[in-house]
Amino acid sequence: MRLSQMLFVTLRDDPADAEIPSHKLLLRAGYIRRIGSGIYAYLPLMWRVLQKVSQIVREEMNATGAQECLLPQLQPADLWKESGRWDTYTKAEGIMFSLIDRREQQLGLGPTHEEVITAIARDMIRSYRQLPLHLYQIQTKFRDEIRPRFGLMRGREFIMKDGYSFHADEASLKETYQDMYKAYSNILRRSGLAFRAVEADSGAIGGSGSTEFMVLAEAGEDEVLYTEDGKYAANVEKAVSLPIDAETSRFTTYEKRDTPGTETIEKVCQLLNCSPTQLVKNVLYQTVYDNGITVLVLVSIRGDQEVNEVKLQNELTKLAPEYGAKTIISLNVPNVEAQQAWTAKSLPLGYIAPDIADEYINANKQIHPKFLRLVDQTAVDLKNFVTGANEAGYHVVGANWGEHFKLPRLVVDIRKARPGDRAIHNPEQTLFSARGIEAGHIFQLGTKYSQAMGATYTNEQGEEKPLLMGCFGVGVSRLAQAAVEQSYDKDGIIWPVAITPYHAIVTIPNIKDAQQIEIAQKLYTELNQAGIETLLDDRDERAGVKFKDADLIGIPYRIVTGRAIANGKVEVVERATRNSQEIVIEEVTTTLKQWITAAIQVKN
């Protein structure tokens, strides 16, 4: 492609609304154009990158026996109501674009396709003889992000590959899960990316086991905790660990202490000269279920630990049937305004004890009349601990479970693991932290959707059983930007060879020099005929402008028909290393072919 004929406009300055390097560079280099909040046009260079990523995905998926299809973006609300996720996606998380058509029917723009594929399986799969079955698509998805940011990383419209598998038994599901683990690793490796596969929370998708594939980058939104022995890695939302040991309490008798102005852990520990590991803090949450019931949740946890709200939400979701509900609409620490809707009297905030009375709740039909009490494992074994006294300005010391406070019946792990904690698989290993961009996620869904939607098959014994399902997603457009986030310098993008829009760019320094033009056009034609995808910068611009643009757009090899042509050579510059060498004109095509082949094979 000749740049003089291409839609090619670069920017010298960073766009004001771009926050991270990859977002800035893709805009500056003319790969994408912002159309609205979280909505981008993929311009010709970007579309070539996306096509290459998609092709790698297709090759790896097809190699496992998965079959490509295309599912509708418009989805009837009735399907989502069958699975119980309509309210979750339109109210709780609020990420689904929903609309009403001219027939007054509710529809949603698909953020994901579990319901659609399950409905298809329900209608078409009858017997175990049809199993296992694995379908996938590469499709535009829609999510109404509260705060679209970082360009293609968190947009409201994006390209994703999602796949769904159906099985008769757990062994078959796990086999496909392992196939996808290998395929996803291959996709990222072939794309030229450094990544880490980590244990993950299943979130609103549901199911049991799940693994995220994280592209390692400082601007990653996710935190990954891992051990150096390579035997453990998990998203911080899912991570488990052993906390540091609690110090022995210096208090030996139970008594109430005057502790004015100590609403924080730091202040009370300073006043009482104690360690936060000797303290039980009690954190109040308000959760609303999908049937409108509000439940007040009191979490008791060791003073030096933080509540992992993802883990907490998972525990509360398990309890939904006890309140006649299916899922959670919201979970938060209630502010003063929110408390006014249910408090019978003012709460002693900062001084709450594990046994705060249920009489604080002014119950009505929407408010459950009792506190739901949970205790984190870190607080269970504490002896002679410090905690609130249910009275502003006072704490108690020397407290014990079973003696001064009743231990809640629900003992859970809802603490947030953090760097420096000891690993569970080997306490001699400590957890380290890295930032990552989630590029892929695989789930073992089990029967979550098939049971809810009545998708069954007949087994060898003639019995009707729910289908077991797997779900596997790759963010195609996110992966492309993640590659930029992982590989750039002060001058621009450095594309991995496997997914670069073009392998080489031939630059003519002086467009008025007939010999430079002749050799450039000759090389341009030869390279493309040899399968080396090549751009020709034949614009009437200064050489410096052309060199800067070549660096900015990140093409792996730049061929310059400059002064060296007098010696029958051209200058070839490798973008990643900036290594420059003069190569005989007749050997350029062969040399580049070898370099490109070697660069791609390294990742395979």
From TrEMBL:
Record EC number: 6.1.1.15
GO molecular function, one term: proline-tRNA ligase activity
Pfam annotation, one family: tRNA_edit
Keywords, in A-Z order: Aminoacyl-tRNA synthetase, ATP-binding, Cytoplasm, Ligase, Nucleotide-binding, Protein biosynthesis
Annotated compartments: Cytoplasm
Transmembrane annotation, as ranges: none
Gene3D superfamilies linked: Anticodon-binding domain (3.40.50.800), Bira Bifunctional Protein, Domain 2 (3.30.930.10)
CDD domains per record: ProRS-INS, ProRS_anticodon_short, ProRS_core_prok
Domain called Aminoacyl-transfer RNA synthetases class-II family profile: residue spans: 33-496
Domain HTH cro/C1-type, residue spans: 254-279
Catalytic activity field: tRNA(Pro) + L-proline + ATP = L-prolyl-tRNA(Pro) + AMP + diphosphate
Leading EC class: ligase
InterPro entries, per the entry: aa-tRNA-synt_IIb (IPR002314), aa-tRNA-synth_II (IPR006195), aa-tRNA-synth_II/BPL/LPL (IPR045864), Anticodon-bd (IPR004154), Anticodon-bd_dom_sf (IPR036621), Cro/C1-type_HTH (IPR001387), Pro-tRNA-ligase_IIa (IPR002316), Pro-tRNA-synth_IIa_bac-type (IPR004500)
Binding partners and assembly: Homodimer.
Family according to the record: Belongs to the class-II aminoacyl-tRNA synthetase family. ProS type 1 subfamily.
Summary of the function given for this chain in its UniProt record: Catalyzes the attachment of proline to tRNA(Pro) in a two-step reaction: proline is first activated by ATP to form Pro-AMP and then transferred to the acceptor end of tRNA(Pro). As ProRS can inadvertently accommodate and process non-cognate amino acids such as alanine and cysteine, to avoid such errors it has two additional distinct editing activities against alanine. One activity is designated as 'pretransfer' editing and involves the tRNA(Pro)-independent hydrolysis of activated Ala-AMP.
Domain notes: Consists of three domains: the N-terminal catalytic domain, the editing domain and the C-terminal anticodon-binding domain.
Name of the molecule in the record: Proline--tRNA ligase
